[in-house]
């Protein structure tokens, strides 16, 4: 059994403290230093094993240890370490909900940041597949697939059995994974003509009462109706809506790839454009939890001394967090016209780790004759993990408890703030029934 903890206190009862990511230091990309830290943390994980029920990173590690000659970490090859890294999709749930050794505990375990460091080392060494570079280049793919004459061809290929078999053979994108549709009429185009002249903003608490939407690459290219529904709900509540004048992907896909220089480039493009609107008194909302998390947590941890990043962090909100903040001051309309019945609501990991509570559930439960059952389990999607040939079946196994809940409860609607998680559940249901985003459900309840 591991002896790493001899003479050390067991566990930690204090609130977790997240240290900045020291990605610009000289030793960050040193592979030998990385492996020393991997060995230290993996040995602690081996002696604890509280995280076995989360992603597949931990079972990969524990199975390798248990199957080794020594049944200790010293019996596991370093090649297995990279397998653990590949299975981690940086959901942060181990840090936030499971690990008793996170800072300020003296062992200072931050498993997600360690995995991110390993991914960054791997990327720096050029050990990244062309497929993974392509899947994380969301703006480029979206622009190309959004060309009017190209869009129907791409969408048809994504739904064609022949096209998907070819895609699996060439790109190792699993033929059974649901892929998003593309739109030539993007969200930014649909909201471009928004006229806010004459609309008056009503501040409430920490909200200014007028919102600039960060479209997100997913809502912009793949599901623009989510952003349209969100704008309609905000305007129904007397909130003027505009868009960020110029934006690109938030950087989360590149972060998960380990391409930290690309994350910096995304920051350099987005933060100035967002800050100009913050200076004009606008709040910022993004409909995808991962994008909100990027600006709330990941960029501040990468750039802890950048005051502009800090100001954007303090001005960006999840949609339901924002509406519930205004509800606290009587600024949310509750003139709902339509009940929703029973709703299975999947809570995305990237929303849970924001520590804002279940605001989506709380708001939807204000609707008369509506019951919302929150499912706090990972969907296993992660944007790209679930579509990769080598990980798809594992991702569906992770999602199975969520799917089982939706089936068991015979709900009227099933929903997730993360649209990709919603489609992962759809994939598991395999009955043609599609998810409905919470913003769509709210618009439906308002009757607008």
Plain-language structure description:
By secondary structure, the chain is an alpha/beta fold. It contains 22 helices and seven strands. Among the domains are: 31-124; 334-446, Rossmann fold, CATH 3.40.50. 49% of the residues lie in helices and 6% in strands. It has a four-stranded parallel sheet with strand order 2-1-3-4, with helices on both faces. Strands 6-5-7 form a three-stranded parallel sheet. Helix 8 crosses helix 9, helix 12 (224-236) packs across helix 22 and helix 15 runs antiparallel to helix 16 (307-313). The longest helix has 20 residues, at 260-279. The protein is globular.
Q: How do the strands and helices of this protein lay out in sequence?
A:
Layout: H1 31-48, H2 57-66, H3 78-87, H4 93-98, H5 111-124, H6 130-135, H7 138-145, H8 151-159, H9 161-171, H10 187-191, E1 211-214, H11 217-221, H12 224-236, E2 241-243, H13 252-257, H14 260-279, E3 283-286, H15 289-302, H16 307-313, E4 316-317, H17 319-327, E5 341-346, H18 349-352, H19 359-364, E6 370-375, H20 392-409, E7 413-416, H21 419-429, H22 438-446
Parallel strand pairs: 1-2, 1-3, 3-4, 5-6, 5-7
Helix pairs in contact: 1-5, 2-3, 3-5, 8-9, 12-22, 14-16, 15-16, 20-21
Key structural traits:
single chain; 448 residues; Rossmann fold; 6% strand
């Amino acid at each position: 059994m591991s002896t790493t903890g001899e003479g050390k206190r067991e566990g930690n009862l204090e609130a977790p403290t997240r240290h900045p990511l020291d990605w610009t230091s000289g030793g960050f990309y040193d592979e030998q230093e990385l492996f020393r830290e991997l060995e230290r943390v993996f040995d602690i994980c081996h002696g604890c094993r509280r995280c076995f029920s989360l992603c597949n990173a931990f079972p990969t590690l524990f199975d390798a240890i248990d199957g080794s000659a020594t049944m200790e970490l010293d019996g596991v090859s370093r090649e297995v370490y990279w397998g653990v890294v590949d299975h981690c999709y940086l959901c942060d749930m181990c840090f936030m909900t499971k690990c008793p050794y996170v800072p300020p505990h003296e062992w200072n375990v931050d498993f997600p940041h360690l995995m991110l460091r390993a991914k960054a080392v791997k990327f720096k060494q050029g050990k990244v597949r062309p497929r993974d570079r392509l899947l994380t280049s969301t703006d480029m793919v979206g622009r190309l697939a959004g060309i009017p004459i190209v869009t129907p061809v791409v969408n048809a290929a994504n739904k064609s059995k022949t096209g998907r078999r070819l895609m699996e053979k060439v790109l190792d994108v699993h033929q059974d994974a649901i892929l998003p549709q593309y739109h030539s009429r993007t969200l930014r185009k649909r909201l471009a003509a928004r006229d806010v002249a004459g609309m008056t903003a009503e501040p409430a608490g920490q909200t200014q009462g007028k919102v600039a939407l960060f479209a997100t690459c997913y809502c912009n290219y793949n599901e623009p109706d989510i952003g349209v529904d969100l704008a309609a709900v905000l305007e129904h509540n007397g909130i003027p809506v505009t868009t960020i004048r110029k934006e690109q992907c938030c950087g989360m896909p590149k972060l998960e790839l380990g391409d930290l220089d690309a994350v910096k480039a995304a920051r350099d493009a987005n933060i100035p454009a967002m800050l100009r609107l913050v200076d004009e008194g606008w709040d910022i909302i993004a409909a995808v939890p991962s994008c909100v998390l990027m600006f709330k947590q990941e960029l501040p941890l990468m750039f802890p001394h950048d005051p502009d990043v800090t100001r954007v962090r303090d001005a960006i909100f999840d949609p339901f967090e924002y509406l519930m903040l205004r509800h606290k001051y009587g600024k949310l309309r509750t003139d709902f016209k339509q009940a929703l019945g029973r709703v299975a609501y999947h809570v995305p990991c990237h929303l849970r780790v924001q520590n804002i509570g279940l605001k989506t559930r709380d708001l939807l439960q204000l609707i008369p004759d509506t019951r919302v059952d929150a499912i706090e389990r990972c969907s296993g999607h992660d944007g790209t993990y679930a579509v990769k040939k080598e990980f798809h079946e594992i991702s569906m196994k992770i999602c199975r408890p969520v799917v089982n809940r939706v089936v068991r409860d015979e709900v009227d609607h099933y929903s997730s703030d993360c649209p990709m998680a919603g489609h992962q559940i759809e994939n598991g249901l395999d009955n043609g029934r599609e998810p409905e985003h919470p913003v769509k459900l709210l618009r439906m309840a308002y009757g607008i």
